[in-house]
């Protein structure tokens, strides 16, 4: 446990909200693993460094995946401190704590008689989209049969996450003097009407066993330039998180049918939809009960996305299972130190039976 906490604090002190420091964090982990008997390789793509190490032999591969980049934070958040069993600091929960658990599990598993292969992947850019890290690794063939991503989940298994559609809707109006609005057509008001129509679309209000509905976030709006003119152009930026099993192209088609304006698609990201009856999930639940008999093993889902989507899009079952913590991306982010140890032991138990 001491090694885990020492490594975690060292990683928190690296402000890996920048590319340079994300790469540095990758290098620190690579050196740590090599010093502890786990050789690996650093794979560079467009200046972004990822790390891959594989142990064991066999026909099947279990992938342990995590990111070392973080969102930006205050300078004080990169000075970790402990209080009442919690470690505070930027990235402590999201997700350097989970990465440390995977690293220590690999070290403890390296000399054991594993039935199959365990591949550790550490990446530098999940918070900014993941295309240079995990997506690149998947495209290069670094894939397996089951994926555990140790994003913070409070030691619960998360089997699904919503997909992402990002688009701009441009509304056009007619400019006029601000004192004579009846002579013009306000593009901002038209944009708000378009947003109201989109929110009410039946396809976005379809739910599932785990989700009440998809969500639409009016993330950006840009219209008008001076106070005394009716704006003739307004662009809304929308972030839509759609329920698994809904085709994102159908969502886009429905939006185009009902809005008065031009729709530009910026991004479509797949959902994660691992089935509850997957046999690897059943084995993982058994490992959790074995290591933590006091824990409930209810399956959960995520509203936000993660790098698991790059595996799921290839038909590879992927889940999230990470330590207890809170306030990730916030000012008081922390991880419970004991949960890192629990997670490490669960990963070891599962890997040995995999």
> Within the CATH hierarchy, at the fold level, what is the topology of the largest domain?
Aminopeptidase
Which residues sit in consecutive blocks of at least 5 with pLDDT less than 50? none
Total number of beta strands:
17
Beta-strand fraction estimate: 25-35%
Could you report the average pLDDT, rounded to the nearest whole number?
95
Whole-Å distance between the termini?
24 Å
Second-tier CATH architecture of the largest domain: 3-Layer(aba) Sandwich
**How many separate helices?**
9
Major sheet, described briefly? 6 strands, mixed
Structure explained in plain terms:
The two termini are 24 Å apart. The chain has helices at 2-12, 19-35, 92-109, 134-139, 187-199, 248-258, 279-291, 308-312, 337-353, and strands at 41-45, 48-55, 61-67, 81-83, 86-88, 117-123, 146-149, 157-161, 163-172, 215-223, 233-242, 262-269, 272-273, 299-302, 318-320, 325-326, 334-336. The chain folds into two domains: 2-161 and 273-353, Aminopeptidase (3-Layer(aba) Sandwich); 163-269, Alpha-Beta Plaits (2-Layer Sandwich), CATH 3.30.70.360. The chain is an alpha+beta fold and 354 residues long. The protein has a six-stranded mixed beta sheet with strand order 1-2-6-3-7-15. The protein has a four-stranded antiparallel beta sheet with strand order 4-5-17-16. It has a four-stranded antiparallel beta sheet with strand order 10-11-9-12. α1 (2-12) crosses α3 and α3 (92-109) packs across α9 (337-353). It is 31% helix and 26% strand.
